[in-house]
Design a protein that fits this description.
The protein is an alpha/beta fold and about 70 residues long. Helix content is about 35%, strand content about 20%. It has a 3-stranded parallel sheet with strand order 2-1-3, sandwiched between helices. The longest helix has 18 residues. It is flat.
Amino acid sequence: MRNQNIILLHGIACTSFVMASLEIHFKYKGYNVLNIDYPSRKLCLEKCADHAHKKISAFLEKHPHPTSFVTDR
């Protein structure tokens, strides 16, 4: 694995499935990848942010490396 992270965030009303091909690609290239799935259709934006924050924090504790974000519209 590289000592670099990529965090994938899908758009509102989508799921992590829309980022799955990028997840596979970046993992193949050796990056530490987190493809966050959050319930954007069920929770308000603030609760979605809290949900994502918890997952990102846990991921970064395991992988304390430079991190890039890739987002969907």
